[in-house]
Amino acid sequence: MSGVTRAEYCVVACAEAWRGSGEILASPMGLIPSVGARLARRTFAPDLLLTDGEAMIVGSDGTVEGWLPYRRHLELVTGGRRHVMMGASQIDRHGNQNISCIGDWARPARQLLGVRGAPVNTLNNPTSYWIPRHSRRVFVAEVDMVCGVGYDRAAGARHHRIPRVVSDLGVFDFATPGRTMRLASVHPGVTVEQVREATAFDLVIDGEVPYTREPTAAELRLIREVIDPGNTRDREVPV
After folding, report:
1. Pfam families, per this entry (predicted)?
2. pLDDT (tens digit per residue) in 6-35
3. For every residue of the chain, which 3-state class applies, written as one string?
4. Which candidate, 33, 46, 127, places its Cα nearest to that of 80?
């Protein structure tokens, strides 16, 4: 198989967020993160737990494997045994995320989703982010409201961790002395300068930035023929 699309690189980058996680609950929010979590479960992370979003543990094909009562779900959420991949309307260099409003909280220019479960997610279990449209409106110098908690505000939070941020341009992490965002890889066809221009703060860039890894032939077959045969991924990240 050939002709790997940008969306498929994004799927693989999202899947990598769960590599080595063991038996934890994966909670992907969004189309490409969901395809990525199912890919991880079928390949290098077979112990991942997936849920139907209601009360069941399901296999990567949707087959019911067990019951997940709400009290058990809360135990996983608050005990560091869940890894969420959320979206972000804004995110800053420290990993603070906003999904609530644009502008001043008292008189916002735009009302969004609200805080929802972002504080609990970020303080109590690992949280990664998926951003399908990388721009200076999303990667901002300072978020208008903190919903998901970044590294500069998480002192003492035992299970706080932001493994990675994936956008349609590249992959980012916080593997820096000051725990600020670093450009870990760019997707093939994207330049470092493109990422810089689309980001409203200075990213940490360590030398030559590698490309996001290629999906294997087996992974491509799973993505295209088993997990997402309808190619819905290209609706989120067009070719």
Report:
1. CoA_trans
2. 999 999 999 999 998 888 889 899 999 999
3. CCCCCHHHHHHHHHHHHHCCCCCCEEEECCHHHHHHHHHHHHCCCCCCEEECCCCEEECCCCCEEEECCHHHHHHHHHCCCEEEEECCCEECCCCCEECCEECCCCCCCEECCCCCCHHHHHHHCCEEEEECCCCCCCECCCCCCCCECCHHHCCCCCCCCCCCEEECCEEEECCCCCCCCEEEEECCCCCHHHHHHCCCCCCECCCCCCECCCCCHHHHHHHHHHHCCCCCHHHHCCC
4. 127
pLDDT digits (tens, 9 = 90+) for 177-197: 999 999 999 999 999 999 999
pLDDT tens digit sequence for 202-224:
999 999 999 999 999 999 999 99
The highest-confidence range among 24-33, 61-70, 71-80, 166-175, by mean pLDDT, is: 166-175
User: What CATH class is the domain 6-232?
Assistant: alpha beta
Task: Pull the structure tokens for residue 68.
Answer: 């997940």
- Nearest CA to 238 out of 1, 86, 13, 32 is that of 32
Domain locations along the chain = 6-232
**Tokens in use for 174?**
């916080």
What pTM was computed for the model? Answer: 0.93
The one-letter code for the residue type at 148 is: G
Distance CA 91, CA 203 (A): 12
